[in-house]
Write a structure and sequence with these properties.
- This protein is mostly beta strands and 94 residues long.
- It has one domain: Domain of unknown function (DUF427) (Metal Binding Protein, Guanine Nucleotide Exchange Factor, Chain A, Beta Complex).
- It contains no helices and 9 strands.
- A hairpin with a 2-residue loop joins strand 6 and strand 7 (61-69).
- The chain is globular, with a radius of gyration of 12 Å.
Length: 94
């Protein structure tokens, strides 16, 4: 089962991830909410739309903008709406 791990802590886990461009997108209910905090950063992907970000928080340490999701994706990316992907040193173990 794919897991997102940072500082030895599982921050997301699901057997229902969607892989897009090599990234596992975890469904919203797979995210451990105590380990994410909204970040104001947004970026734009030409085909997926505007991404919003979360900071990942474990043991008082913050990994800023290390997770992203598409709250209003384009039609082409509608299958990953609100699913969360990780970067910034977050290990995704598949």
């Amino acid at each position: 089962m794919p897991k997102a791990v940072w500082n030895g802590t599982i921050v997301a886990e699901s057997d229902a991830t969607v892989v897009v461009e090599g990234n596992h997108y975890f469904p919203p209910d797979a995210i451990k909410s105590e380990h994410v905090a909204l970040n104001e950063l947004t970026t734009v992907c030409p085909w997926k739309g505007t991404a919003s970000y979360y900071d990942v928080v474990v043991g008082g340490e913050v990994n800023p903008a290390a997770a992203w999701y598409y709250p209003e994706p384009s039609d082409a990316a509608s299958h990953i709406k609100d699913h969360v992907a990780f970067g910034g040193g977050i290990a995704v173990e598949a």
